[in-house]
Structures are given as C-alpha cells and as structure tokens.
Amino acid sequence: MRNKVPGWLSLSLVIVVAMAVGACSTGGERTVDVTEAAQRNIDGANGFGKPMPRPKQEDVVGALEQQLTKKDDTLLDIAVDHDLGYLEIVAANPGIDPWVPSPGTEVVLPKARVLPSVPRQGIVINMPERRLYYYERGYLVYDFPVGIGRDDLETPFGRTTVVRKKEAPDWRPTVQARRSDPTLPAVVPAGPDNPLGSHALYLGWANYLIHGTNRVYAIGRRASRGCIRLYPDDIAKLYATVPVGTPVAVINQPYKLGWQGGELYLEAHPTVQQGRAMEEKQTLKPSNVADVRPLVESRAGEAMSRIDWAAVETAVREHRGVPVQITRPAALAARS
Q1: Crossing angle for the helix pair 289-300 and 309-318, to the nearest 10 degrees
Q2: Which residue of the set 82, 199, 211, 269 is catalytic?
Q3: Exposed, middle or buried by CB within 10 Å (0-12, 13-18, 19+), for 6?
Q4: Is there a smaller number of Cβ atoms within 10 Å at the N or the C end of the chain?
Q5: Angstrom distance (rounded) from CA 92 to CA 62
Q6: Could you tell me which of 30, 270, 265 has the C-alpha nearest to residue 134?
Q7: What is the mean pLDDT of residues 131-149?
Q8: Whether 199 is catalytic
Q9: How far apart are the C-alpha atoms of 298 and 91, rounded to whole Å?
Q10: What is the pTM of this model?
C-alpha cells in the first residue's frame, strides 16, 4: 500500500497544466504539449492567408509524477530514465537515500516547473536548478537537466551567444587542465572516451561550451571544468535545433514565481551554496522567507491579499524545487 501523499505535494499535484511541459542513460524529450489544432494555427494560416497567433503559454509547465522504486534502483537511475538531474530528484525527495532507497518507496519526479523570469528567447540556464531552457519565438521548446562547473572552475553568470557548432568534437584540454592532470594528451579525439560527448555548442566565452557527456551520472552535479553538460540524447536534440548566433543567458534564480490558471506558484530551489552542501551532505544553512518576500510582492500585484505566507515559508524552508500554489482561491480569500 502506498504511503499517503504529504500535504505539500497534494497542493502541487492539483496544478492543471495547459501546456505540458562543457568538458563538462539517455533522457527523454521534454517538449510543450501543444494540441494538434493549436499547432496548425501556429504553423499555418487562417482563411485570409494571415498567420494565426500563438496560444499564450502560462508560467507553469509540466506535471509532477510518482514512481515506486524497485530492487536495486537508485535515485540516479530514476533521474537518468526520466531526464532529471541528480540535485533536483534528491531535493524533491528529502529523507530518501539516493543510493539505496527501500524497494516500494514512492519517489516524486519533479517534472512540473515554473519558467524563469527572464525574456523567453534562446537558451536560458538557471544555475540553482541546474536546468537549461530553450525558447523559439518566445515559446518553450525544450528544457533539459545540466551538469555545471565544480567549485574551482565554476560556470560564469551572464550573457553570451552560440558562436559555432561541432559534431563529433575533439577535446583540447586547457593548459590549466593539463597542469592539474599531466596524463592528459594535447587532444582527445571524438569517441567514447571524449568528455565532450557527441555534439558541442561553442560560446562567445573562451573555453566554455554546451556539450554532451560520457558520464551520464554527472548530470545535475558540479563536475565539469565550467562547461554545461547535457545527456547524450538531449544535446543531440539541442544541437539539431539551435542555430549559430542564438543568445545564451546563465542566470541565478533559486526562487521562481509564475501564474497558472489565475493562481500564483512558487518554486524554491536550493541556492548555489545550498546545492553544493547537499551534494557534499553538509548541514544546510536555512533560507529566510524575507529573501523571497519582495519577489512575491512584485509578482502578486492585486492578488497580494490572497497570498498564503505559511505556504511561502514552507516552500522556502524545504526548497524541494516543485511548484507550490501560494495564493488562496479568490472565493476563500473573500470569506477570510
């Protein structure tokens, strides 16, 4: 018999989703679920020969799922199977041993997410959640988990562009890399031993790439020399879609807020520092609701009287990385 779903998860599960959702197991594709008729409107034209407008995409996409563990499962195996990263599946399932979960344990698959609060164009990489978003014409096409730079070689924040693309890339270790590991050759050719994987997108920042990996269990972790790593299938899809010149933004948004169905949702991730501590199994410094209050106030607008501050505090304290509704329904708020 399954355990009772906890209250915080029950609240998140009622989300009604209109749209489904470098040397740094294959993940499944995550695309927006656009109905066939809506897609015809997007790509085609109306009876007067004019392109039809796109349907508006709300701020929350995807849906939470659950899976029971089987014998010999690890959370990392489940993450790879479901196109999730290490940190996001661990954060969504506190108290579950990531390496030896008991068989029959219900695992939350955090496939619902609030879109970052930045212009929806090109590639957006949100470092705290360790996830990449790709937009075309303001509309989400893909979102994928990523591996990022480790402590001494952190991935930089800021804006750049894709300056070139390469299939079956060679890896040429930097002087610093060869100094720290003298066994590295000057060039590692394409193949199974190449840490760049099968495809690479070169950025305007020297020595930084978005690329594949030959170590799938590093996705969602701090393991690269500053580059952004993707699962093999994910980088192949991104490579085939992204043109040279695409803008790239690397951002720091541990707290994301967005609207869905007239309600405001908060998705709280571990900060970059907290994520580091979670990987190293250190004690986390607790977050403070005061850190997110100005963001809530700025997004709530006329719905401020409906904010459930207890729900906000719980989401910020637990940082499970799943969307939590933080507005009380208008009818209930009017009676309180």
Answers
A1: 130
A2: 211
A3: exposed
A4: N
A5: 15
A6: 30
A7: 94
A8: no
A9: 26
A10: 0.81
The residue written with tokens 């040397």 in the block is 23
Those residues with Cβ within 8 angstroms of residue 293's Cβ, 6 or more apart along the chain or in another chain = 312
Share of the chain above pLDDT 70, in %: 78
Distances in whole angstroms, Cα of residue 42 to Cα of each of 46, 55, 110, 237: 10, 8, 29, 21
Give the E-state strand segments of 252-327 in sequence order: 255-260, 263-268, 324-325
7-11, 51-55, 91-95, 243-247: lowest mean pLDDT where?
A: 7-11
54 confidence band (pLDDT: 50, 70, 90): low
Q: Report residue 230 as tokens.
A: 């993707």
Q: What domains are defined for the chain?
A: 7-21+25-113 (no CATH), 122-251 (2.40.440.10), 255-335 (no CATH)
Q: Is 24 a catalytic residue?
A: no
**Active-site option among 24, 82, 199, 227:** 227
